[in-house]
Specification:
alpha/beta; seven-stranded mixed beta sheet; three-stranded mixed beta sheet; 12 strands; about 20% helix; globular; binds glutamine
C-alpha cells in the first residue's frame, strides 16, 4: 500500500512516521504528480487558511478532487478535516469569499470549537471499532457540527462529533499522529482499498 501525506504545511512528518511504522510506503505530496499511484492521502493538522492558500498556489485542488473521484481515500486531521468539509464556520474576516478547501465531505466544521491554543488538551476517547479508549490530542481543534446522511459518526466529545467517516473519506478533530497509538491510522488504511 502507498499513502501520500500532503506536505505543504503542518504536522506531516509525524503522520509519515506513524504510517511507516505500520509498514506503509509513504510519499510526501507537494505537487500534483506526487499523487500518482497512491491508494490514500493524509491531510495533516496545521493551519487551514495557510494550507488552503498553498493548495491553490500549487494547483493541487483539482488533482486531489480527481484523486478522490478515481477511487483514492482521504483522511483529514484537524486542519485537514477543515480542508475536507463542504461547510466551514468561523473563517477569518480578512479572507474574501470562502476559505479555500476541497469541499469533498458532507460535514460542517467549526474552526477552533474547543478554544484557543492554550486550551489544547489530551482526552481518552471511545471510538467506534476500537476495543479500548484512544488518547487524543486536541490543538485548537475544530468540531464537526453537522454531518450529512451518508456520514458515520465514529466518536463524539463534549457534544461535538470529533471523528467521522463517509465511504473513503475520514475526518478527525484531533491529532492521531501525536500519540504512539496507531489504531486510528489503521482504521483509515482499511478504507484505502481501491474499488
Ligand atoms: N491543530 C490544528 O490543525 C488546528 C487547526 C486550526 N485551528 C485551523 O483552523 O486551521
Amino acid at each position: 500500500m502507498k499513502i501520500g501525506v500532503l506536505a505543504l504545511q503542518g504536522a506531516f512528518r509525524e503522520h509519515r512516521q506513524m504510517l511507516e511504522k505500520l509498514g506503509v510506503e509513504v510519499t510526501e505530496v507537494r505537487l500534483p504528480q506526487h499523487l500518482a499511484g497512491l491508494d490514500g492521502l493524509v491531510i495533516p493538522g496545521g493551519e487551514s487558511t495557510t494550507m488552503g492558500k498553498l493548495m491553490m498556489d500549487y494547483d493541487l485542488k483539482d488533482p486531489i478532487q480527481q484523486f478522490y473521484q478515481d477511487g483514492g481515500a482521504i483522511f483529514g486531521t484537524c486542519a485537514g478535516a477543515i480542508m475536507l468539509a463542504t461547510e466551514i464556520e468561523g473563517q477569518p474576516k480578512h479572507i474574501q469569499g470562502k476559505q479555500p478547501s476541497l469541499e469533498l465531505m458532507d460535514i460542517t466544521v467549526a474552526r477552533n470549537a474547543f478554544g484557543r491554543q492554550v486550551d489544547s488538551f489530551k482526552e481518552p476517547l471511545n471510538i467506534q471499532g476500537l476495543d479500548s479508549t484512544f488518547d487524543a490530542v486536541f490543538i485548537r481543534a475544530p468540531g464537526i457540527t453537522h454531518v450529512g446522511k451518508d456520514v458515520e459518526v465514529l466518536c463524539e466529545h463534549q457534544g461535538q462529533v470529533v471523528l467521522a467517516r463517509s465511504g473513503r473519506l475520514m475526518a478527525a478533530s484531533f491529532h492521531p499522529e501525536l500519540t504512539k497509538d496507531a489504531r486510528v491510522h489503521e482504521l483509515f488504511l482499511k478504507t484505502c482499498v481501491k474499488a
